[in-house]
Design goal:
The protein is mainly α. It is 72% helix and 0% strand. The protein is built from five helices and no strands. The longest helix is centred in the C-terminal third of the chain and has 29 residues.
Length: 135
Amino acid sequence: MEEFNLIVAQQPQWIQIWMNILSFCAFVLPVSLLIWKKTRLTAIITMLGSTLAAAGVLLIFNQLGYVRLMGLGHAVFWTPLAYYLWRQQGHEDMPTAPKWIIRVVLLTIAISLAFDYADTIRYLLGDRTPVLAPA
């Protein structure tokens, strides 16, 4: 994990900012859904999905380094999670605040998935150069 953090620190500033937003929206914000009884299961599923996605990314990083295929770790777990969150935010009887929290989490995951799918496809098409090697 330390090596991963060192490499992220070498990324352009916008990527570092994005990683902070992503971490907050995928790991911290879902905890707030525990407040409402109606969204407690959604909170747990979201936190579990994000934890598994992060583990997938770190597993690929540990095996292959900082390569574009790391996006596959997110894609595997966040694709079904995004569908689930889409369904949850559409419930008409859900209070407004958790509905908007779910939408922010979903939007953040969807943006990440756009990058993740593009990177994974590039890797599978032959772009296997490490994005950034450790210093």
